[in-house]
Design brief:
Elements (H helix, E strand, L loop, with lengths): L13 H17 L4 H8 L8 H13 L4 H13 L10 H6 L5 H12 L15 H13 L3 H4 L1 H11 L4 H9 L6 H22 L1
Length: 202
């Protein structure tokens, strides 16, 4: 059983670690990993016990010797494809059954209240899992006291990530083309489970 994160002592580096992991997952789901990123992860330490630590160790192992070209092919086959992607990475699809539905409008309203908006050079809608993870990274690392507060983090997480993330993870885990991304998803699932426990205890 994994050990829940603790929010009481943000100065011990745990908040930085949370933000960094959200940022890494956002990067991996946004696009295929570069060779430099694979080499960096593959050279990282992989120690500790628990589900989250084991999932991280598995990702480190998967990155060692991995080639960016092969993982680009896997990413494209899963998340790009010809026509409709094999696996959709958008919250509206899992929450409403269709893309660009009410959950996206509600997300945009919440982002506006936080003073956030999609950059002009990004074509993906805001309910892409990578963008939601990036918002969590921003909230945790923000110098704005209200944005960085646990209630703000919890509200965003509980509304826009927790209700559908497991369905996405299931879709990736069971897909025949998922190899490296099944490993990424095990880490994401373990992390989201730990975050859920921690928010429940906050």
């Amino acid at each position: 059983m994994s050990t829940p994160l603790k929010f009481e002592t943000p100065d011990n580096g745990e908040e930085t670690a949370r933000a960094d992991l959200y940022g890494l997952l956002a990067t991996l789901y946004a696009a295929p990993p570069s060779q430099a990123l694979l080499d960096t992860i593959g050279s990282a330490a992989a120690e500790g016990e628990g589900i989250l630590q084991q999932a991280w160790a598995d990702l480190v192992k998967a990155c060692r010797g991995a080639r960016a070209e092969a993982l680009s092919t896997e990413y494209d086959s899963l998340f790009i494809g010809v026509g409709k992607p094999e696996v959709l990475l958008y919250g509206s699809y899992y929450l409403a059954g269709f893309l660009m539905e009410k959950p996206l409008a509600e997300l945009r309203a919440d982002l506006a209240r936080l003073g956030l908006e999609r950059a002009d050079d990004i074509s993906e809608p805001e309910d892409h899992i990578a963008m939601l993870f990036e918002v969590m990274r921003y909230l945790i690392a923000s110098q704005d006291i209200e944005h960085a507060s646990i209630p703000t983090q919890q509200a965003f997480f509980s509304t826009h990530i927790a209700p559908w993330a497991a369905q996405l993870f299931d879709a990736i885990d069971t897909h025949r083309h998922a190899a490296f991304y099944a490993t990424v998803t095990r880490l994401a699932r373990a992390f989201i489970d730990v975050e859920t426990q921690a928010f429940d205890m906050a």
